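To make this tangible, we now present a fold written out as C-alpha coordinates:
***
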Amino acid sequence: MIGLLVVAALFALSSGEISEDSLKRAIRDTGFILKENVIDPGRGSFENCGKAKNFSITWSPKQPSPRGSLEAEINFVTPYAWQKGSGVLEVYLKEMPQTPVIQLSEDFTCDDIRKYLPQFKCPLKANDLVHASYTDGKLPALPSGGYVIKAQILNENKEEILCGKADITINM
Protein backbone atom coordinates (compact mmCIF):
# COMPACT_ATOMS: atom_id res chain seq x y z
CA MET A 1 0.00 0.00 0.00
CA ILE A 2 1.41 3.34 -0.94
CA GLY A 3 -0.32 5.24 1.88
CA LEU A 4 -0.20 9.00 1.66
CA LEU A 5 1.37 9.16 -1.75
CA VAL A 6 3.46 12.24 -1.28
CA VAL A 7 5.17 10.59 1.69
CA ALA A 8 5.41 7.41 -0.34
CA ALA A 9 7.33 9.30 -3.01
CA LEU A 10 10.13 9.64 -0.50
CA PHE A 11 9.94 5.99 0.48
CA ALA A 12 9.09 4.41 -2.87
CA LEU A 13 12.34 2.56 -3.16
CA SER A 14 12.02 1.27 0.42
CA SER A 15 8.36 0.24 0.28
CA GLY A 16 7.12 -3.28 -0.15
CA GLU A 17 5.62 -2.18 -3.47
CA ILE A 18 8.99 -2.47 -5.22
CA SER A 19 10.91 -5.69 -4.75
CA GLU A 20 14.64 -5.67 -4.14
CA ASP A 21 15.16 -7.60 -7.40
CA SER A 22 13.16 -5.00 -9.37
CA LEU A 23 15.20 -2.23 -7.79
CA LYS A 24 18.48 -4.00 -8.60
CA ARG A 25 17.35 -4.52 -12.24
CA ALA A 26 16.41 -0.84 -12.56
CA ILE A 27 19.75 0.16 -11.07
CA ARG A 28 21.68 -2.19 -13.37
CA ASP A 29 19.70 -1.02 -16.42
CA THR A 30 20.45 2.63 -15.65
CA GLY A 31 24.13 2.03 -14.81
CA PHE A 32 23.93 2.85 -11.07
CA ILE A 33 25.49 0.88 -8.24
CA LEU A 34 24.39 0.62 -4.63
CA LYS A 35 26.56 2.37 -2.01
CA GLU A 36 26.09 4.09 1.33
CA ASN A 37 24.91 7.68 0.98
CA VAL A 38 26.32 10.83 2.54
CA ILE A 39 23.91 12.55 4.92
CA ASP A 40 23.04 16.19 4.25
CA PRO A 41 21.47 17.65 7.41
CA GLY A 42 19.30 20.12 5.43
CA ARG A 43 15.65 19.69 4.48
CA GLY A 44 14.30 18.73 1.09
CA SER A 45 10.98 20.08 -0.15
CA PHE A 46 8.27 19.43 -2.69
CA GLU A 47 6.93 22.21 -4.89
CA ASN A 48 3.20 22.52 -5.42
CA CYS A 49 2.14 21.47 -8.93
CA GLY A 50 -1.59 21.51 -8.16
CA LYS A 51 -4.41 23.52 -6.57
CA ALA A 52 -3.76 22.80 -2.87
CA LYS A 53 -3.29 25.97 -0.81
CA ASN A 54 -0.75 26.62 1.99
CA PHE A 55 1.29 23.75 0.56
CA SER A 56 4.42 22.63 2.39
CA ILE A 57 5.89 19.15 2.22
CA THR A 58 9.44 18.71 3.52
CA TRP A 59 11.72 15.87 4.55
CA SER A 60 14.91 15.57 6.57
CA PRO A 61 17.70 14.81 6.07
CA LYS A 62 17.74 16.23 2.57
CA GLN A 63 19.96 13.38 1.39
CA PRO A 64 18.83 10.24 3.22
CA SER A 65 21.21 7.54 4.39
CA PRO A 66 20.32 3.85 4.25
CA ARG A 67 21.51 3.58 7.87
CA GLY A 68 19.47 6.56 9.05
CA SER A 69 15.85 7.54 9.25
CA LEU A 70 13.76 9.97 7.26
CA GLU A 71 11.21 12.41 8.70
CA ALA A 72 8.54 14.04 6.54
CA GLU A 73 6.21 16.94 7.40
CA ILE A 74 3.03 17.54 5.34
CA ASN A 75 0.82 20.66 5.39
CA PHE A 76 -1.78 21.81 2.88
CA VAL A 77 -5.38 22.95 2.47
CA THR A 78 -7.34 20.53 0.32
CA PRO A 79 -9.25 22.01 -2.64
CA TYR A 80 -11.87 19.20 -2.73
CA ALA A 81 -13.45 16.64 -0.40
CA TRP A 82 -11.69 13.28 -0.07
CA GLN A 83 -12.39 9.98 1.63
CA LYS A 84 -11.06 7.59 -0.96
CA GLY A 85 -9.31 7.86 -4.26
CA SER A 86 -6.06 7.07 -5.94
CA GLY A 87 -2.49 8.16 -6.08
CA VAL A 88 0.08 8.25 -8.83
CA LEU A 89 3.82 8.25 -8.19
CA GLU A 90 6.41 8.82 -10.90
CA VAL A 91 10.19 8.85 -10.41
CA TYR A 92 12.43 10.17 -13.18
CA LEU A 93 16.18 10.28 -13.57
CA LYS A 94 17.19 13.92 -14.02
CA GLU A 95 19.10 12.84 -17.14
CA MET A 96 15.94 11.24 -18.60
CA PRO A 97 13.06 13.57 -17.60
CA GLN A 98 10.64 12.27 -20.28
CA THR A 99 10.55 8.64 -19.13
CA PRO A 100 9.75 7.54 -15.56
CA VAL A 101 11.95 4.77 -14.17
CA ILE A 102 9.29 4.03 -11.55
CA GLN A 103 5.56 4.49 -12.09
CA LEU A 104 3.01 3.38 -9.50
CA SER A 105 -0.74 3.86 -9.23
CA GLU A 106 -2.77 2.75 -6.23
CA ASP A 107 -6.32 3.13 -4.91
CA PHE A 108 -6.58 3.85 -1.18
CA THR A 109 -8.97 4.99 1.56
CA CYS A 110 -8.85 6.84 4.87
CA ASP A 111 -8.23 3.54 6.68
CA ASP A 112 -5.24 2.81 4.44
CA ILE A 113 -3.66 6.17 5.25
CA ARG A 114 -4.25 5.75 8.99
CA LYS A 115 -2.05 2.63 8.94
CA TYR A 116 0.91 4.94 8.23
CA LEU A 117 -0.38 8.20 9.73
CA PRO A 118 -2.61 7.39 12.74
CA GLN A 119 -3.18 11.10 13.45
CA PHE A 120 -4.61 11.70 9.95
CA LYS A 121 -8.15 13.14 10.18
CA CYS A 122 -10.34 11.70 7.48
CA PRO A 123 -12.64 12.05 5.55
CA LEU A 124 -11.57 15.51 4.36
CA LYS A 125 -13.92 18.31 3.39
CA ALA A 126 -12.99 20.97 0.85
CA ASN A 127 -10.76 23.60 2.48
CA ASP A 128 -9.69 21.35 5.38
CA LEU A 129 -6.19 21.91 6.71
CA VAL A 130 -4.11 18.75 6.54
CA HIS A 131 -1.12 18.36 8.85
CA ALA A 132 0.77 15.11 9.26
CA SER A 133 4.26 13.89 10.02
CA TYR A 134 5.89 10.56 9.30
CA THR A 135 9.16 8.86 10.25
CA ASP A 136 10.68 5.83 8.54
CA GLY A 137 13.80 4.14 9.91
CA LYS A 138 14.06 1.31 7.37
CA LEU A 139 15.72 2.96 4.39
CA PRO A 140 17.70 0.73 2.04
CA ALA A 141 20.88 1.64 0.17
CA LEU A 142 19.71 3.80 -2.74
CA PRO A 143 21.44 4.34 -6.07
CA SER A 144 23.44 7.53 -6.35
CA GLY A 145 22.04 10.09 -8.75
CA GLY A 146 19.59 12.88 -9.35
CA TYR A 147 15.86 12.22 -9.41
CA VAL A 148 12.64 14.10 -9.99
CA ILE A 149 9.69 12.73 -8.02
CA LYS A 150 6.10 13.62 -8.85
CA ALA A 151 3.16 12.49 -6.72
CA GLN A 152 -0.56 13.14 -7.19
CA ILE A 153 -3.56 12.27 -5.03
CA LEU A 154 -7.02 12.22 -6.63
CA ASN A 155 -10.41 11.77 -5.00
CA GLU A 156 -13.05 9.29 -6.20
CA ASN A 157 -14.27 11.91 -8.71
CA LYS A 158 -10.74 12.21 -10.21
CA GLU A 159 -10.37 15.74 -8.78
CA GLU A 160 -6.77 16.48 -7.85
CA ILE A 161 -6.35 16.84 -4.08
CA LEU A 162 -2.59 17.22 -4.12
CA CYS A 163 0.28 17.36 -6.59
CA GLY A 164 3.87 17.62 -5.42
CA LYS A 165 7.13 17.58 -7.35
CA ALA A 166 10.63 17.35 -5.87
CA ASP A 167 14.23 17.12 -6.99
CA ILE A 168 16.34 14.80 -4.87
CA THR A 169 20.03 14.09 -5.19
CA ILE A 170 21.57 11.06 -3.56
CA ASN A 171 25.36 11.20 -3.27
CA MET A 172 27.80 8.40 -2.61
